[in-house]
Design a protein that fits this description.
mainly alpha; 3% strand
Length: 370
């Protein structure tokens, strides 16, 4: 097969704005390089351990999924139509402009981080099954990242993906942590985008930017990526039992809490979409948890009153952290330490809430039917 990973990285970088050698990165690139609890990260892993993965236990489902990737139904989808050229879609109210542009930059960073990880796995492993899979997924993620960069040009900004690759800090995750975190990231990405797309379907007058028209087929890519990680985990049953159940709970809580808090920092964007951030977040959790039952024996009880109250408390703490940052100085630093302790205590409380336990279904595969 062709080396999709190299092509993917090259294509994504080609869509990025050029930057003169030695010049300082623009504000959007600097924003993308930030490493906080709420910003997307870049990951690396143990490639030798990944190389040993055997997907034989799920061979039938695996081959069917690879056939779907090979069909590549989105070959020409992620292109800005000629009729939209020359139109500036960034003419938005100031606060909505700020939140939406940051949403696009964060989304681009997340997509490109997946592209970089998948391309690196494709390059480092010899396992033919994994080389095929990660080549396809790097291809998809590069299209998504490049597509967002096309729209960022309206805002007079763009992210220098080459600079981002070199300057962003990389976090090492064991393969099983990559499975848990990336599976959840792909599936919750599907749930978030499909929820927004369905809202726009019902209320087209709320579509303040054309990019939402691409969300359905876009999130189906994310869904398919999650299916690949589900199969890899089901091919290694030990990852879904024993002490690993505690890691599954941990990553669910981390992903859910991060998404919930981050979305509550964009009130104007959700208001423009006619969405209440809390109701939207709980709807996304319901979709994601239902999907995750295909592979996780335990899922979080996202409807538990203590769980919902705890997430709301994390939002309050995040706002207080931002206020303390703005205050600065010794007092602000002390306040931030205290707030970090409060956030940790809240997360521990949420972690030990009762979970939903179900037997794994015999049929692993799901269809994006939400």
């Amino acid at each position: 097969m062709n080396d999709h990973s190299s092509e993917a990285l090259a294509a994504a970088r080609a869509a990025a704005p050029a930057r003169n050698a030695g010049a300082a990165p623009n504000d959007s690139t600097q924003f993308a390089t930030q490493d906080t609890l709420l910003t997307p990260r870049f990951y690396t892993t143990d490639f030798k351990a990944l190389d040993a993965v055997d997907v034989s236990p799920v061979r039938k489902e695996w081959d069917a999924l690879m056939a779907e990737f090979e069909m590549d139904t989105n070959t020409d989808h992620f292109q800005r139509p000629a009729e939209m050229a020359g139109t500036n879609y960034a003419n938005l109210p100031p606060e909505l402009y700020k939140e939406f542009s940051q949403f696009l930059i964060s989304s681009l960073t997340s997509e490109f981080s997946g592209c970089v990880l998948y391309a690196e796995i494709r390059k480092k492993v010899k396992n033919p099954d994994l080389r095929t899979l990660f080549g396809y997924m790097a291809r998809d993620e590069s299209r998504h990242a490049g597509f967002i960069n096309q729209w960022l040009k309206d805002f007079g900004i763009g992210v220098d993906l080459g600079f981002l690759t070199k300057s962003k800090k990389y976090t090492f995750f064991k393969p099983k942590y990559v499975y848990y975190a990336t599976y959840l990231s792909e599936k919750i990405g599907y749930a978030r985008y499909i929820a927004i797309y369905r809202q726009i379907e019902k209320h087209p007058e709320l579509r303040f930017h054309p990019i939402f028209l691409w969300f359905e087929r876009w999130c189906n890519d994310e869904f398919r990526h999650g299916e690949a990680f589900a199969l890899m985990m089901r091919a290694q049953p030990g990852l879904l039992k024993g002490l690993n159940l505690y890691w599954i709970r941990f990553f669910q809580l981390a992903v859910y809490a991060t998404m919930f808090v981050r979305d509550h920092t964009r009130p104007e964007m959700h208001k423009a979409l006619g969405l209440d951030p809390t109701a939207y977040g709980l709807h996304v959790f319901a979709i994601t948890s239902r999907i995750a039952e295909q592979v996780f024996p335990v899922t979080l009880d996202h409807t538990h009153p203590v769980f919902v109250a705890g997430l709301a408390r994390l939002c309050e703490i995040q706002q207080a952290v931002e206020d303390a940052k703005a205050r600065g100085g010794i007092v602000g630093g002390i306040q931030r330490l205290g707030l970090a302790a409060q956030a940790a205590a809240t997360l521990v409380k949420l972690y030990f809430l009762p979970v939903v336990r179900k037997d794994l279904p015999e049929d692993v595969r799901l269809a994006p039917s939400w």
